[in-house]
Amino acid sequence: MRKTLTALAIGSIILAGCGKETVREVLVTAPPVAVTEAPETDINKFDAYLELLYNESAQARTWLESDLLELGTTVCEVFDQGGTIDGVINIFTKNSTGKYDDELYSAVIAGSVIYLCPEWADYVQSQLN
Questions:
Q1: Do the Cβ atoms of 117 and 45 come closer than 8 Å?
Q2: Within a 10 A sphere around the Cβ of 106, how many other Cβ atoms?
Q3: What percent of the chain lies above the pLDDT cut of 70?
Q4: Are 103 and 17 in contact (CB under 8 A)?
């Protein structure tokens, strides 16, 4: 399941720059991508999350690391409190300030459920299907 979500997340992030207009469209319209299992490394989950954001969203480099980590942990907290993917998207949409926000927010959601709170990966995947 993690491979599928990782593939979806990476595909989603790549599509973010292709004219999609909402975070949900970016997350839902990603085609499955073949992903090979990455070797385990000593990188911690927070560094892995930040690395994903920096690689997949140019806008992430304009944010403080602490703010990006706060966004990621907020995503996890929303799910911990019974929230939905639509709830997370609504929070981000209300705080959106530009056309590149969807790319960043898609990366934050994907990175959060891959690295920071993987226990929610199946839940998020079920809401996107």
A1: no
A2: 28
A3: 66
A4: yes
